[in-house]
Design goal:
seven-stranded mixed sheet, 9 strands, 37% helix, elongated
């Protein structure tokens, strides 16, 4: 695989759920002819239909003007039709290549996601099927070794009892060019959380070793369309790095 087939791989410290899928960098000629800088194929099709309507209008207009102007109108219609044919060929070729490129890019970006770590904002645990008033779940400060030890003991107790408590994990990631912090919430079984204790940890971090990015097809009036413009992530089990005593 050529390295330039995978442009703009986002670094681990700027990942977010809805990444923009880049257009294949090695298809510059097709992208130029198709008037595309990102995989907005629905917009390209609408522009092509407008161009087709324009060519049809110019062809029909020759019967409404004086004969001396008809060759000019026919010439303009022919140029517009030629541009339309080139655009359609380029668009079809680019769509085909983008479909092949998209899963490779998603896999490469998923590999980065699996190595990324995010700051834990809140870690709450509740007993399964326990009916508590809203907000009564047990919260653990993972920068306090004593609370980390309590959480590990609770996990051991769950395993001995053959059950798994429910975890609500909130973590932060950076959003947009301004790099504003945004919060993501995931719900897991406590048994799906691996706790790794680190000496002197001032902040708790979380990684998702099985995380993957998936393509989010665009929804239009005619249904779902691909290739996709954005992504969503599926995170899976978590590894939490917490303070040790």
């Amino acid at each position: 695989m050529k390295t330039d087939d995978l442009p703009r791989i986002e670094p681990a410290d700027s990942l977010r759920p809805d990444l923009r899928v880049p257009l294949l960098a090695t298809a510059r000629i097709e992208a130029t002819l198709a008037r595309l800088s990102e995989p907005r194929f629905a917009d390209a099709h609408r522009r092509t239909l407008r161009a087709l309507a324009g060519a049809a209008a110019l062809t029909a207009a020759q019967f409404a003007v004086v004969p001396s102007l008809r060759p000019w109108l026919l010439g303009a219609a022919a140029l517009l039709l030629l541009d339309l044919v080139c655009r359609l060929l380029a668009l079809n070729s680019l769509r085909r290549r983008q479909r092949a490129f998209e899963p490779r890019w998603l896999e490469a970006q998923s590999a980065v996601l699996r190595t990324a770590s995010f700051e834990v904002v809140r870690f709450e645990v509740s007993t399964p099927f326990e009916r508590r008033p809203r907000g009564r779940a047990q919260s653990y400060d993972l920068t306090r070794p004593a609370e980390v030890e309590m959480l590990i003991e609770r996990q051991r107790d769950d395993r001995a009892r053959g059950r798994s408590s429910q975890v609500k994990l909130e973590f932060s990631y950076l959003l947009g060019p301004a790099r504003r912090a945004a919060i993501e919430v995931v719900h897991l079984d406590l048994d799906d959380v691996t706790i790794v204790r680190a000496e002197g940890a001032r902040r708790a971090r979380v990684r998702f070793p099985e995380a993957r990015y998936h393509a989010q097809p665009s929804l239009h009036r005619t249904g779902w369309r691909q290739p996709s413009e954005t992504t969503f992530w599926v995170l899976g089990p978590a590894t939490v790095h917490a303070a040790a005593g």
